[in-house]
Amino acid sequence: MLPYLTMNPFGFPVLSTTIFMPLFGVLFILFMSNEKAIKVAAMITALLTLAVSAFLFVNFDPTTTIFQFGERISWVSSFNINYMLGIDGISIMLILLTTIISPIAVLSSWKAIQTRVKEFMISILIMETAMIGVFCSLDFILFYFFWEAMLIPMYLLIAIWGGPNKDYASLKFFIYTLFGSVFLLVAIIAIYLVNGTFSIPEAMFKDYTFQFQFWVFLAFGIAFAIKVPMFPFHTWLPAAHTEAPTVGSVFLASILLKMGTYGFMRFCLPIVPQASFYFAPLMIVLSIIGIIYGGFVCLSQTDMKKLVAYSSVAHMGFVILGIFTFSIYGFVGALFQMLNHGITTGGLFLLVGMVYERTHSRQIYDNAGLGKIMPIYMFFFGLFAVSSFAFPGTNSFVGELYVLIGAFAVNKTAGFFAVVGAVVAAAYMLKLLKQVAWGREDKRDIKDMNLREIIYMVPLAIFVLWVGLFPRPFVNVMEYTLVNLATQLDKVSH
Amino acid sequence: MTLLLEIYLLLFSVLFLFLSLGKGGKSLFLPARIFSLGAVAVSLITLNANGLLFYGAYQVNGFSQIFKLILTVGLTFVVFMFNRDDEVDNMPEFFMFLGFSTLGLTALVSSVELISILISLEISSFSLYAIVPLRRSKTTGHLEAAIKYLFFGAVATGVMLYGMGYLYAMTHSTYLADIVSGMPAIIDKPLGILALVLTMTAFFFKLSLFPLHFWAPDIYEGASDATTTFIATVPKVAGAALLIRLTMLAGAPLAQLAMVLMVLAAFSMTVGNLAGLVQQDIKRLLGYSGIAHAGYLMLGLLAFNKSGSAVVAYYITVYLFMNLSLFYVIMLLSRNGENLKVADLAGLARRSPLLALTLAVAAFSLAGIPPTGGFTGKFFLLVTAFKAGYLPIVIIAAVNTVLSIFYYLNLVRVSYSREAKEESPLNLTFSEKILCVLFSVIILVLGIMPLPVMEMFVRVM
């Protein structure tokens, strides 16, 4: 038995079921031709996956730091590659985020996608499989498989159903991410040659030489920094977001960006801790630049979607800042911010998509003054906008507070600049909110949100308030894992 | 029994030789398909054959038989692939030469003596020299291609003979077994390395490795689609097999030879990928892609051990299928046998989703993106080279992967996101659909389940 993995106690491989449920749905969809039936089938598949992951969540034991629901089958024995799965307090939250966002994504594209519905739904479901797979993998190669496999459906989502400039955006997205990934692969091989195994937990907290750690961190860092994206690797993000269909943006913002920060938490910190300490000042400076720069760029945007996209750069800066404080507050805050950003920014992209379906414009001016015309819409928009700049009572406030506590404890200057960034965030979001609510007086014929749209926005809104007012249940789930990470790192630093 | 496959292929070729003497007029696709399937069956029957023939010059064992199986499978797919191609329709000579060439290649992987290597190589090469100009469309490119291929091929063979001469002079034998035992005495001498590298030259040529790469784009462009498909795939398998055989001659890791291979690999990858970036003709693009892939292949040879050789064999197998798949798309799309430009792919996803998917799977595999076989093979190669301690070449290969993604992705990009000039849907017949699906499935299975094939190669090395 492996010391770091408790095997799956159930009669069926529950993690594999979660991962491959969407792919199983794809098998059925392949043989369907009725568009309505395809949508329904995709929806059912996504909901079933959500149900299995809820089952996971209910049975998750938050009082242990060992990976749970383990599965381990030999895959390529000559290279010691295993099909090894397992989850801890970090991954369970992100899996749940993925499975919640996926049915919402299907529902939100019900009307918006008119061409090639079948391929679209297949792409979404393959994406879901790959995303859950990334968070469950405990083997480097398995991880890399899912990590890269994600690129293809995402590329297709942008390249086929994207906006006018989709050609450029999808290419840039693909090449940028792939560039990072090949170095990730080289680093993985380097670790394998030292350890003789591709197992991720077995690579953690070993005594590697500093020189080795230095190079591995650089290789990991480039891959993850591009994915996050951190300044100065962020330029693919606004392009990809603006051109992607709404669902593409939601997946990008809610889940794909989390892969980068997840990578920092899962790989960089435990595997190359000394190099992480060494590079921490640089990472903190870059994250601060990201926060402030992202904020100021947002201030000058006239395109709603671009504004939300650039705000992602700032938000992800907070996550990186939290991670590289190496404190428990920073970690909890970072993980919270990952979830919050997924929910809040995902929600904002959905709302921008909704109004775009009606006015066919993303310019703030064209969509201004909706307060009287679309009251329900305005309610949701207001909620997600204030959540985006961390208004007390919303989810982001909790996350940002944790990050700021962590940051001030480590470095007051960093904390100060992060607060400045938070103020800038309030400025651009309130400016946008004011414009959208009261910016124009003239009456226009725009329909308010329909029932379908309300249905998929409500779960997100509930989450915003729930975490904002009562975050304890969520903290409980992640606490043990994060405390363990922080103590382990503490041991290394002394 | 041990020579059954060779005899079968000889009969196959002779049959079409006689058919070529007749008036013709009848379509020969059906007999060609049946007989090529027969070749696969025969190679399966003789898979476990063992023996040493012709005074020890011809060895039939696991190593040779597995490569023969791959060669005949490759031949069969090529034969099955062209049915719309009016270039070679009703040309029995074409099948005859394919048969002779495959015969030469199967003999090549069994040869363990220098003269038989030379003869087998020439049998396969001369057949190819003859089919390059077989093209009906009104271009002059195919004549130029034929001449170039002939001359470059002849020079490469000449250089190989030069190297063989040195080997013979130093070890007093043409048998590889004797050369191996004589190797330790000469291997640290510059002449020993030179002899080995020169002998390898002809196979570098077959694989289009730098600096013997320049024929590939011209010949790919000039020859008809069917001919290019064959030249780009099947002979490379045999070329890789012989390179494995020759590097194994060294016995132990050999720093100087590794250095030579590494430099060639680095140049090959970089030259191939950089030139690939600006290509408009898809076949020409694949020519440069082949040069780059020859470079990747060298990474497995650097280890000088069995597992490294198995990795090379694995990669060339994947390479065979991903190229066949991509060439099949080209063949189905090209009109009147004209060369296809990248721009002609526009709107493919709308005209035929299946064909676009087949193209995407093959292109992503060539670029090395999981979960395709191209990734798994490349990953094995990188691990092998890294394990052997050659980090610089691993990094060069990684950077090259990024370079190459530009033009592979461009194929997918054009077929998915460019609007077509004409919207006429492309109707595939049932058998064409089957073949498309089959290629994609093989590429994916080789990516996700590499173990069975890999173990098979490890066992026979």
Could you give the topology of this structure?
The complex is a heterodimer of chains A (494) and B (461).
Chain A: E1 5-7, H1 14-30, H2 35-59, E2 67-76, E3 81-87, H3 89-108, H4 117-136, H5 140-149, H6 151-161, H7 166-195, H8 200-203, H9 210-227, H10 236-243, H11 246-271, H12 273-299, H13 304-323, H14 328-359, H15 375-388, H16 395-410, H17 412-438, H18 451-469, H19 472-493
Parallel strand pairs in A: 1-2
Antiparallel strand pairs in A: 2-3
Helix pairs in contact in A: 1-2, 1-4, 2-3, 2-4, 3-4, 3-11, 3-14, 3-18, 3-19, 4-5, 4-6, 4-11, 5-7, 6-7, 7-9, 7-10, 9-11, 9-12, 10-13, 11-12, 11-13, 11-14, 12-13, 12-17, 13-14, 13-16, 13-17, 14-15, 14-16, 14-18, 14-19, 15-17, 16-17, 16-18
Chain B: H1 4-21, H2 29-45, E1 51-53, E2 58-60, H3 62-81, H4 92-110, H5 114-131, H6 141-171, H7 176-186, H8 190-207, H9 215-222, H10 225-249, H11 255-276, H12 282-301, H13 306-333, H14 348-351, H15 353-367, H16 373-387, H17 391-417, H18 430-448, H19 451-460
Antiparallel strand pairs in B: 1-2
What does this structure look like?
The complex is a heterodimer of chains A (494) and B (461). By secondary structure, chain A is mostly helical. Chain A has 2 domains: 1-251, no CATH class; 272-494, no CATH class. Helix content of chain A is 74%, strand content 4%. Chain A has a 3-stranded mixed β-sheet. In chain A, a hairpin with a 4-residue loop joins strand 2 (67-76) and strand 3. In chain A, helix 4 packs parallel to helix 11. The relative contact order of chain A is 0.10. Chain B has one domain. Chain B is mostly helical. Chain A binds chain B through residues 75-79, 119, 141, 144-145, 148-149, 151-152, 155-156, 159-160, 162, 166-167, 170-171, 174-175, 178-179, 182-183, 185-186, 189-190, 192-193, and chain B through 307, 349, 353, 360, 364, 369-371, 375, 379-380, 382-383, 386-387, 394-395, 398-399, 401-402, 405-406, 409-410, 412-413, 416-418, 450-451, 454-455, 458.
